[in-house]
Amino acid sequence: MITIKDLKKSFNGLEVLKGVNLTIPDGKITFIMGQSGTGKSVLLKHIVGLLKPDSGEIWFENKDITKLSEKELQKIRRKIGFLFQEGALFDSMTVKENIIFPLKEHFKMSKAEMEKIAEELLSAVDLLFAKNKYPSELSGGMKKRAALARTLALRPQVVLFDEPTTGLDPILQVSILELIKNLKEKYNLTCIIVSHDINLAFKFSDYIAFLHGGVIIEVGTPEEIKASNNEFVKKFIESALL
Amino acid sequence: MNFFSLLGRGFLKVLSDCGGIFLFFLKSLIYSFFPPYRVKLLIKHMEFIGVKSWLVVILTSLFSGMVTAYQVNIALAKVGSQSILGGVVALTLTRELGPVLTAVVVIARAGSAISAELGSMRITEQIDALKIMAVNPIQYLISPRLWAAILVLPLLTAISDFVGIAGGYVVGTFLLHIDPGLLTARMVDMVELKDIMSGIIKSIFFGAYLVTVCGYKGYYASGGAEGVGRATTEAVVISTVGILVVDYILTTLIF
Questions:
Q1: Per-residue pLDDT in tens (0 to 9) along chain B, 255 residues
Q2: Which of B129, B135, B136 is facing A84, going by the closest CB pair?
Q3: Which of A49, A145, B57, B93 is an S-S bond match for A125, by CB 3.0 to 4.6 Å?
Q4: Which SUPFAM superfamilies match (chain A) (predicted)?
């Protein structure tokens, strides 16, 4: 379980997060929804320690992530994977080398073992045929699937997804989220997905949290969110259904 | 008031950059002493910085040696001391021109590439991806390059010294018709081991300096493709001007 308490963050005097409070349950898919530029990705980067907050706490496995040193954070990061919006694959390496990279860094395995794991992961994301391609040769959806395979290589307990469906066509959006759901079941993952697509959230989430004005204004299951009386949430859902 | 405010802001930016670059250097150096030791990366970067630069270094040094001999001869002719041409050319090359020209060539060829590559990795979040995978990005990206430049610059400088002196010899002998025996004898008389070593030692500092500046600018690039271009330009300008400043400081203080 991840617990965020009164998290605040400003950039050049602009207060982006004004006291976020949120609990992320284990083994579930939680969507963080909100308009563009409301700080959803900023919140995600705090959870994995890429950004330090001005104040507030983030608790994971009885440790406050915001107070950890870079060395202690490295241990935590092996348990929390992060899927970047554009994949952030290393463009000097092939897809398979990208997946082998974290294995080589953290495990003492033979080359054959690492290749076997990489190919298993690529099969899981249906990308085995592209194992020897470079990221520049892949489409947007393929890059995201390759990045997902790389994220899973370290067997994380939690995976954070920064807008995994942005820029993809509707069929690919659904296939990526189905893939995430299947992998969540297979590897018993806790998934946090930042998105602004409410329809996908209703279909694939266990919980939805709305970030608006720098705070979480509503949290609940998809049914609870559909029945919400919050004006902003109602407007957001109505706009999406237009 | 605005003028002083701008001046102060500029001064603070320079100070902050200097501090940042120095801390970046210390981190790169210290992390390199902790495992994992990245020998394969070190060799890869030695090839990129050294092996792929030798031809440009040779061409630059050859013509610099030749033109130095030609110009120095004009000056020496005025006082009737053309016999010491070989010694003066060799001293100029080993103490100053060799290490400085080599460093400038490496900045232009490899330093700019280091800055652009790291800047591109920064804006496409590849550096953040390294952090997420619990890999220390400075230790992975900068430390091997730092040691590669420290090891390779002295070798390139030695090549540069040799080729430059050979260029001076060719011009002195065939174009200016100075006796080859006299030319080499004066070189041997005037150039001591410490002259050659002062240039070689300087090049070690130059290697560390250029990788640190180019690495720092690329590593902290921001603002998309335009930001990468800006970072690369700043890296080349600051490291080239800085090499001359460092050269002056080393020459006056140590050599």
A1: 688 899 998 899 889 999 999 999 999 999 999 999 999 999 999 999 999 999 999 999 999 999 999 999 999 999 988 889 999 999 999 999 999 999 999 999 999 999 999 999 999 999 999 999 999 999 999 999 999 999 999 999 999 999 999 999 999 999 999 999 999 999 999 999 999 999 999 999 999 999 999 999 999 999 999 999 999 999 999 999 999 999 999 999 877
A2: B129
A3: A145
A4: P-loop containing nucleoside triphosphate hydrolases
- 8 Å CB contact of A90 and B129: yes
Q: Does B135 touch chain A (CB under 8 A)?
A: yes
Chain A residues close to B131, C-beta within 8 Å: 50, 77
CATH superfamily name and code, A2-79+156-241:
P-loop containing nucleotide triphosphate hydrolases (3.40.50.300)
Cβ contacts of B132 on chain A, cutoff 8 Å: 48, 50, 77, 80-82
Q: Kindly give, in sequence order, each residue whose CB lies less than 8 Å from that of residue B233, ignoring residues fewer than 6 positions away.
A: none
Sequence-separated (6 or more) residues with CB below 8 Å from residue B136: A70, A74, B31, B130
Cβ distance B128 to A88 less than 8 Å, yes or no, reads: yes
